[in-house]
Amino acid sequence: MQRILDIARDKAASTALIIGVFVFWEIFCLAANISDILLPRPTQIIGALVKFWPAIWPHTYQTLYTTLVGFGFGVAIGVAIGVLIGSSRLAYDTAYPLLVGFSSIPKVAVVPIFVLWYGAGTVPAILTAMIICIFPIVVNVATGIATVEPELEDVMKTLKASKLDILWNVSLPRAMPYFFASLKVAIALAFVGSVVAETVASNRGIGNMMMIASSSFNVPLVFAGLFVLAGLGVSLYAIFSLIEYRITGWAHRKTDLAAS
Amino acid sequence: MNVMTAAVSIAAPVARPFIAFEQASVTFGRGEKAVQALQPTDLTIAEGDFVALVGPSGCGKSTILKMVSELLKPSSGYVFIGGREIGANPIRIGMAYQNPTLLPWLNIRDNVMLPLKIVPPFRGEFSAKRKGEFRDRVEALLAQVGLAGFGDKYPWQLSGGMMQRANLCRALIHDPELLLLDEPFGALDQFTREELWAIMQDLWLSKKLTVLLVTHDLREAAYLANRICVMSARPGRILDDSPVNMPRPRTIEMTFQPDFVALNQRLRAMIVGARGGTGIVNHPPGQG
Q1: Helices A53-87, A172-200: inter-axial angle, 10-degree rounding
Q2: A166: closest CA of chain B, how far (Å)
Q3: Band (B16; pLDDT cuts 50, 70, 90)
Q4: Residues of B with CB under 8 A from a CB of A
Q5: I need a labelling partner for A210 at 20 to 30 A (CA). Which of A136, B15, B125, B149 fits?
């Protein structure tokens, strides 16, 4: 009972903070008489969101589509590289410097190259979303796999377990909490990647819509685009948190799992 | 308990000892940086025996364990297990460390069952028998170490002593011919440790397996083992090999009797000597 009250209080506090920020924003704009060309009020933004929704929806769909496809490829490639690097010292030493170099390139800078290769549109957005979210997944999966306790590995080797046995029964499950932590980072980054690509070179997607809206000084619509992106990001984050909790509950001890 | 006599007498008919080190040495690194961990060592262990290795820290006790478990090859000399050189032997080995390393995402039953998933011939039958025969087998073993009814618990819900019991079960579930224990009770409090000694002795008496125990605790070695090998400081070698002539099953009370205490004191003096024999104290100043 005490715990339920605690949770309710936590949620109440965070909800209150969110509402408080928007109320403050609204009042501040009204009191300081700020033009909606500079900073529209939340009510104006929501108004724009409702008014333009039929036009916003296809862009939302496009951004969600490119982000998720890019994210999906990114996860698949990231996990594959992470498993390889995490389970082999040689692969780690060989590939890590290249990966670090690769990851330190600002991903925005490669969008023109993708456009050059594939033309403006969906593909550059997918690719940008993909490459931007590979690295955190690789690092986390590799860390999870490489930090298996040496004693446990010895126990497994003494049982004549093959590398695949160890990977399947020990390393991969052990890397799951690291993997999900990286998914939450990666999904946010994937949105960055797809929106940047849309902004630079596309005629669809939220990024593109915001570009057009800002060039016609429809600032409430620009902010409405931000709200949509925030909404998508939060929803996906929540979904992954839920899956994470279901799959890696063992890593969050003393929670419901321990009580049941 | 009649099983006990059987376990001791089984050593007789084996031609070659179950485990034999013949001038086996281990050196880590090469050239100038080479560190000899183990001097050429002869050691034989009969099938069904219970041998304890004691000695100062870093004396190569774990190195010997690693060679027996085939995680490490001798730099020179030979190690024979079951009459064959290591690397070529199909014997089943169970291993338990001080750190229980139970998998936190599996409950105790599945943790204990893990070797059955990996070691043949159980491996092939695993999916068919995991809910039936294997499950009963795990429950029986858990009951034997006093963990009956804990199969559904997760490792973090158990105390350190209970986790170590589960760890022992995991090392024994696949009926190993050889059990290797690397300071398995080192992190436990005195009373839990003594409780686990008794459990370990019962397991050994009932299962007729060969056990090699590495420990810092001389009382533990003398309580559990048939033979105690004392090792010198690095580079390790075996200084002394003493039988423990105490009747089985042994009790904690016996560990306070005069001849038991005398054995302990003799071993202790030997280890203190071994520590003093090397270490920083004897290095001439200015060297290196």
Answers
A1: 140
A2: 9
A3: low
A4: 66, 69-71, 93-97, 99, 101, 103-105, 114-115, 117-119, 154, 156-157, 170-171, 174, 180
A5: A136
Q: Which of A164, A204, A161, A203 is nearest to A61 (CA)?
A: A204
Question: Around A114, how many Cα atoms within 13 Å sit in the side-chain half-sphere?
Answer: 25
> Residue A101 has which token pair?
């170099």
Nearest to A239 by CA among A81, A78, A68, A13: A68
Chain A residues close to B117, C-beta within 8 Å: 169
Cβ atoms of B210 and B18 closer than 8 Å = yes
Looking at mean pLDDT, say which of A47-51, A162-166, B275-279 comes out highest: A47-51
Tokens of A12: 């109440």
What is residue B236's DSSP assignment? B
pLDDT tens readout for residues A21-78: 999 999 999 999 888 888 999 999 999 999 999 989 999 999 999 999 999 999 999 9
Residue B264 has pLDDT above 50, yes or no: yes
For residue B187 the two structure tokens come to: 């992190």
Closest partner CB to A250 (pick from B99, B104, B115): B104
In the numeric block, which tokens belong to residue B10?
């089984």
Give CA–CA dist A52/A219, Å, rounded.
Answer: 13
Q: How far is CA B239 from the centre of its chain?
A: 19
